[in-house]
Write a structure and sequence with these properties.
single chain; about 90 residues; HU Protein, Chain A; 3 helices; about 30% strand; extended
Length: about 90
């Protein structure tokens, strides 16, 4: 594939993910993790420099939860999972 075609595909996927999150849906990418949106309520915070109270408005944030496979790989358990997968594939 050409780089411009890959860019269009990736942009289309990211646009669809953004639309789904904006609608309150959960987006799951197998083997990577799940994205969801979370609301934070309005609150009063403080400017760390001056100590002045600042009103922080309500907003929506994106939350990411890694898959078990991703979590294991990031925490050095991934080598065992890869070895297990290689053994399963070599049996076929």
């Amino acid at each position: 594939m050409y780089a411009r075609d890959v860019e269009r595909v990736v942009d289309a996927i990211l646009d669809r993910m953004t639309d789904a999150l904006a609608d309150g849906d959960r987006v799951e990418l197998r083997g990577l993790g799940a994205f969801s949106s979370r609301e934070t309520r309005a609150r009063v915070s403080r400017n760390p420099r001056s100590g002045v109270a600042v009103q922080v408005p309500e907003k929506t944030n994106v939350h990411f939860k890694p898959s078990k496979t991703m979590h294991a790989r990031l925490n050095r358990g991934g080598i065992e999972l890869e070895d297990k997968a290689d053994r399963l594939l070599s049996v076929s």
